[in-house]
Amino acid sequence: MRAGQDRSADIVRKRVVLHFPGFEPLDARLHHARYQRSAAESAKTWDLAVNVGQLHQAGSAAYFDVSSGNADHLTESRIYCFDHSSLVTSLTSKPVLSRVLSGYASACRVVMEGGLTGYFRHAWRFGLFFLSPFLLLMLAVLSSPTIASLPFTLRIEVWNYLWSLPLALAVFRLVFVPLFGRLHTLHLFADWELAVAMARLDRPEVNRWIETCMADIRNALKDEADEYVISSHSMGSTVAAHTIGMLLAEDPDIFKGKRVTFVTLGGAILQCSLLRSAAVLRACVGRIARAPEVFWLEVQCLTDSIHFYKSRVVSLAGHPDAPQARIAFVRVKQMVSPERYKRIKFDLLRVHRQYVLGSDSRSNFDFTLMTAGPLPAARFANFQPRDLHDRRKHADLEDVIAMPGVLMDAQRTF
Known about the structure:
Elements: E1 14-20, H1 28-46, E2 49-58, E3 61-70, E4 73-81, H2 85-92, H3 96-112, H4 115-122, H5 124-148, H6 150-154, H7 161-182, H8 185-200, H9 204-220, E5 227-233, H10 236-250, E6 260-265, H11 269-273, H12 279-290, E7 294-301, H13 313-316, E8 326-330, H14 332-335, H15 338-344, H16 348-353, H17 367-372, H18 398-402, H19 410-413
Parallel strand pairs: 1-4, 1-5, 5-6, 6-7, 7-8
Antiparallel strand pairs: 2-3, 3-4
Helix pairs in contact: 2-8, 3-8, 4-5, 5-7, 5-8, 9-10, 10-12
């Protein structure tokens, strides 16, 4: 674990979290609301008192403060949210035809740049995930004229077009359109458009967003803390890798004297870095892996097909000689109740979001516990529920957290 092993035993009193969400149409306000809901659920699961503060704006960055603890400790965390909802909106607000054409153009670029081959070589389920929205739309487009032309194919009377044409329209509207919505087909087209842009860095709005994140992180790192957690989910891992890697290129000592943990949750860095044009991203991955102050933790899940399960990200990005990210394997089935798992297990995107949602069962990972709890984030490389003290033996904490001077005040504690 390199530095992470010998510094994971102490209790964190003050923490700064820099969180990069995935490709979702949620701004900082909605991510804050999600965190509140998830924290409330996880607090019950772990018998931990958690108080989530209001959302604040600092320049272009948004943040909120979280207090958590028990009778013998208090942990204060400031969580910055670097959502890229503006990029998501710009891609998903285009006319449908434009979104479809852009999506297929992006898919062609992925194939031509070797992405598809890499996906199936290192994570065949991710390869199927890549193909699925494009194949589904092709099936819909081909099936409609096929049904409509049944009278011609079967060589039956012309009047049968009276039922074949309405049937073709009905199948498209009643079967495929709801399926497109349930499987987020058009949303995934936009996701691949951004993935190609993140690899090539050929879109001004993407480059401006990365530069904005870099400026906001420089300011956030001025906050004094016991540890700095850079957490990222899905596509957000690519944004985070670009941002942190470029900061290290500008200033190799930017993390000097700080304890930093880079956590990728269901990370999709290889979604972009396996493309031949992603030379800058691959260089950024190498810088992060070699930074002596940074402990890189990959959280992966067997039942999540939208990431590169068991893949060595640093090595596959072209740095086999660099320190490799530590991998922690989690199971969604263990994080949620049997009833909830039964409801969500066939929803690929819902399972993929579980990394950043609340849990109603104790397992070896919990996002709230990692970002607001007392243990250093590096501990989650081999965390077990017993590692957290049994808080049921402590006094009720709701009154303690609500006491004046205990709840974090943005102007006073940071």
